[in-house]
Each structure stands twice: as C-alpha cells, then as structure tokens.
Amino acid sequence: xxxxxxxxxxxxxxxxxxxxxxxxxxxxxxxxxxxxxxxxxxxxxxxxxxxxxxxxxxxxxxxxxxxxxxxxxxxxxxxxxxxxxxxxxxxxxxxxxxxxxxxxxxxxxxxxxxxxxxxxxxxxxxxxxxxxxxxxxxxxxxxxxxxxxxxxxxxxxxxxxxxxxxxxxxxxxxxxxxxxxxxxxxxxxxxxxxxxxxxxxxxxxxxxxxxxxxxxxxxxxxxxxxxxxxxxxxxxxxxxxxxxxxxxxxxxxxxxxxxxxxxxxxxxxxxxxxxxxxxxxxxxxxxxxxxxxxxxxxxxxxxxxxxxxxxxxxxxxxxxxxxxxxxxxxxxxxxxxxxxxxxxxxxxxxxxxxxxxxxxxxxxxxxxxxxxxxxxxxxxxxxxxxxxxxxxxxxxxxxxxxxxxxxxxxxxxxxxxxxxxxxxxxxxxxxxxxxxxxxxxxxxxxxxxxxxxxxxxxxxxxxxxxxxxxxxxxxx
Length: 476
Fold this sequence. Notes:
Layout: H1 8-14, H2 34-45, H3 53-84, E1 88-89, E2 96-97, H4 101-109, H5 111-152, H6 163-176, H7 186-212, H8 233-251, H9 257-261, H10 270-300, H11 318-354, H12 359-362, E3 364-369, E4 373-378, H13 379-398, H14 402-429, H15 437-470
C-alpha cells in the first residue's frame, strides 16, 4: 500500500547522499554512525516542549518535578532500546529491514495494529502543526510586548492579539508548503535544530542570571503550588495532570526513531549502535531539560510562567529575550514543515493513485520566480496544502492555549507511539511467554503510561474548556 512509504519522507531529511543505491536491499547507501544518530535524537527531542518545563515543575514541586523528568526519560530510553531490536525482523541483526515506524508495526503486529499506528502518528503530526502555529504567534507577540515594556515600563498596557501573527505564520507556511518534499527542506531542518539549541540555552542562561541577582527570592516548595494559597484543590489536581502530560510530550521522539535508525550503516549492527545512540541522546536531552525545568523553577518559583520566554518572567535584557523568541519562530517555521510534509504526502499519494489519469493531479508546471529560480507547481499540491495550512491556522486561532495544547498533543501521542507499540512489538518478536515475570513488568509499565495518557488528556481538555469561557478567538 502507498501509506507504507509516507514516513520515508522523514528519513529523507536525515539522508546525506541520495545518489547511491547500493545498500544491502537496494535502498540509499547508509553512512550514519552512533554520533550522527545521537545528534538526530537530541535535535528531535529538544524542541518547543522545553519552554513549558519550568511551569510543569512548579505544578509538581522539587520532588515531583525531578521524579517526572527522570521517570519519563527512563521510560523513553527503555522503549527506544526495545524498538532498536525491532528494526530488523524476525532476527534483530540479520532480519529484513523495517525503515519506517508504520512498516515496523505492520511487519511485527499485523495490519489492524498498523492502522492504529498510522492514526496515532498522523494525529500527532497534525496536532504538532497546530501547536507550532500557536507557539510561533505567542513568540511574535512576546517580541512586541518586550519592546513595549522596555519603552513604556513594566506596568504599561501592552496587550496584543495573537490572531494577526497566526495569520502571518500561516501565510508563510502556505508558501513553504509548495516545496515538493521534505528532502528539499533539509537545510530548513538543520537551521531549525540550531535554533532549538539557541533558545533553550538563552532560557537556561537567563534563569541562572535571575537566580544570581542580589535580593532574588521566590517561593518554591517540595510539592509545588500550595493548595489554598496559590491554587484551589481542583486547580492543583488538573495542573498536576497537565504538567505530567507536558513532560511526557517533551521527551517524545518515537515517531521518527525507525527513520533515524535507518540512516545507520549495517556494520556494526544497527540495533547495537541505536541503543548506544539512544542512551547518549536521551541522557543529553534529560540534562538539558532538567536545567531548563529546575533552573526555571528556581528562577520564578511557584509563579513560573507557562512559557518562560514569553510569559514575562524575563523583561531584561529585552534584546536577548527578543533573540530567544526569534530563534523559536525560526525553529517552528522549519518544524511545521517537518511535521506537515508526511501528512501532505499521504493525501497526495492517495489522490494520485485514485485518479492516476487526472492532469490536475499529475501535471507539473515550471514557474520562474525572479531571484529564486524555478518553482515546480502542481495544482493538487497548491490546493490541498493551502487548505491544510488554513485549517490548522483556524484551529490554532480557536484554541489559543499553549500549555493545554502542548499537554493534549503529548498525552494523545505518548502512550501509543512511545510505549504501547514498542512494548507489544518487543513481546511479539522476543516471543515472551504470557504472564511471565518479564511480560507482567512490561504490561505494568504500559498500563501506568496509559493512565498517565488518560489523565493528561482529561486535564488538557478541562483546561481548554475553561480557557474558552474567557478567551476571545479571532480577535484582531
């Protein structure tokens, strides 16, 4: 089926040379090593989710926040190691390759599970494009606000609507979406990765500077926000659940783990190299996340903003805050395309295979653009991708709630992609007997993460419902 090939677009973004096809099964020659795979993992994991970690730790406190950061890193590492052995089947070293996550699930678990995997993956991809539209607009507004506060003082009325900036981001994505495939966007992906390190580092640096300020004192606690002082009992419960979901989202990279492993050379065995890379990549990411979350909490205490570069815990130096937000915007411009291109491809391939004789679907037009070059235009691509960007922009404008959207996306995708499928594939491939001690432990981990997902979804939806009561969508 055509859908087996869709997430190969993600693998193409990691490929170095697309001219050599002399690998062991006729695919592109793979040149990846533990170092390149570790780098891919770090750049995939560290993203906009890092911005909400200080807020998440404030809801959970020093104890709960630290435990959650470590626990989800260990769960992600475990399932990544299990997936590394599923890359080749039935033998993890000499079996046939499964170059994409969906192919892996179809080969090991069968067609029904494969369809569920596709639903989970594409739901996650679509959700991320909505979340990125919202986050980019928030950062654009933050830049205007920081300059307003710098000019008129911190008490000035600098309220600015997000909606015009979401429209501007959407218009940019309409143009970028006409680039045929992700392989031709590799430069944008590299730039986005550099930007994610940039704004994360700025956040850590500003947190350290704030902690070092003379007279700095904020209220923190072992259990975070205090019931009856900072929040009500109900708010504490919902915020705790949502914070857990936010942290789970921050570690999620399973949707591209097979594609990353498919870049590795066949010798030494890919599964061994991938396990090493997963350990290194997740360890680095955890250190980075702990720095952002814990230092952010130390800097702002229980009043930590939902997004620590846009919630205005930081006012000065305003130019550095602006640079951090500019980095976020540039990163999200590229990240949107990384997530959207597989969605574009699956629909376009389905339509093309359904109406193969249609010139509207297949004909390419070369349009010369001054100072840019030749643009390959296709009517299907132009119409469908424009409609998609418009729809995701409208949804983001309807639900402008950063932490709730981040938590909902994380909760929906975390259990099936990061936990359920890796564990079930491992149990099937390794032929682990039912009700054995190993089977019971694995299923308990899966059950725990299912509970986390359910409460995270409920808490995020609750937050969105409450936000809708007070927000004014589409305000310009």
